[in-house]
Amino acid sequence: MTFFWRPEALATLRRWGETLGALALTALGVWWALQGPGPVYWLGWLLALVGAGLTLGAVQRARFTARGDAAGVIEVIEGEIRYFGPRGGGVIALDLMQTLMLSADGAFWLVESLDGTILAIPRAAKGNEALFDAFAALGGLDMPLLLRTIAQGPAPRARAIWQRRSQRLLT
Asked: What are the backbone dihedrals phi and psi of residue 168, each rounded to the nearest 5 degrees, phi first?
C-alpha cells in the first residue's frame, strides 16, 4: 500500500511517527481521565503525563534527525560512535570525546577526541538517529542549545556545542 504514498510524505511520517504515537497516548490518557470512573480517572491522568513526557522527547528526536541522504553508515555500539563512509571514517569512544561541533554548513558533526583526531560525520548518514542518545549521554550537554544550533542553518564557521570540562588536580 506504500505505493500510494509520495516518498516525501513517507519520510515525514517516519520522522514524526514517534511524536504522533506519543500524542495519541496523551490523548487516550486525557480521554480516560475525563470519561472514566474511579481508578480509571487516575490512570488516565498518569497515562496523559507519561504521554506528554514521551511527546517532548519525540519532538526533540524529530528535530535532531537530519533530512536527506548522505554517504556512509553511523553506528553507536557499547559507548563508541562508528562512522564508515566511502571517503573514510573512524571510531571515537564517548568517554574519550573532547569536543562536539557542527560544521559551518550544518551538514557534518565534527567530533574531536582527547588525542586530537577529528571525525567528520555527515548528519544525514544512515543511522543518524542513534547519535541523539549518544550525545545526550555526554555530561553537561545542553540539548536545547544543540537543537537551536541545528535549526540556525549555515554559519560563517563551525560552532562548538559541547566541550569536556577539564579536570584540575588539587595539589
From this structure: -95, 140
**Cell numbers found for residue 132:** 541523539
C-alpha–C-alpha distance, residues 22 and 157, integer Å:
37
Q: How many residues does the chain have?
A: 171
Q: Which three cell numbers stand for residue 85?
A: 563512509
Q: Is residue 91 pLDDT above 60, yes or no?
A: yes
Alpha carbons 127 and 129: distance in angstroms, whole number: 5
| pLDDT bracket for residue 139 (50, 70, 90) | confident
Whether the CA torsion 90, 138, 103, 10 is positive or negative: it is positive
Using DSSP's 3-state secondary structure scheme, residue 22 falls into: helix
6: its cell numbers: 509520495
Nearest to 102 by CA among 84, 82, 117, 123: 123
